[in-house]
Write a structure and sequence with these properties.
The protein has 150 residues and is an alpha+beta fold. Helices cover 36% and strands 31% of the residues.
């Protein structure tokens, strides 16, 4: 029974959830109208999921999933849910678990080093390598600016 549940979840997730590389139009086709647009980030809600998609040059390069709990559900992701989201975003890429920075959360990296994923504090995030590099550069520039004049 458990294997059937996983197969059904994987089949549902592979067609129902945004993937890295998709356009805004493709995301809207999956979810319908966004609940919030503050470009470059667009937020959708589908069933018990809030999905925040950040676009760069017209393509999704960061996707965050948050499970919205109801009375009969828990906030935490199940192992099957994490696997299904990984399949839809990693595709056929192989991946490994990687050490957690500062020991927090769970982290995965595709073997080709192109997609990084984090599960921490109820949020599952997938980011392209380029998105991670831009974020690191922005953080460094902000830190450098805060030290200017010392």
């Amino acid at each position: 029974m458990k294997s059937w549940s996983l197969l059904l979840l994987l089949a549902f997730t592979s067609s129902a959830f945004a993937r890295l590389g998709e356009t805004l139009q493709q995301c809207q086709a999956r979810y319908g109208a966004p609940v919030q647009i503050q470009m470059p980030t667009v937020i959708f809600r589908k069933e018990k999921w809030s999905v925040s998609v950040t676009f760069f040059q017209g393509k999704a390069d960061s996707i965050s999933y948050i499970k919205i709990p109801d009375q009969d559900d828990r906030f935490a992701f199940t192992e099957n849910e994490v696997e299904a989201f990984m399949k839809s975003n990693f595709g056929e890429r192989d991946y490994n678990s990687v050490p957690a920075p500062r020991g927090k959360g769970q982290h995965w990296l595709t073997k080709d080093n192109q997609i990084f994923s984090t599960l921490y504090d109820g949020v599952l995030i997938f980011r392209t390598r380029a998105a991670v590099e831009r974020s690191v550069a922005a953080d460094k520039a902000k830190a450098d600016q805060s030290l200017k004049g010392f």
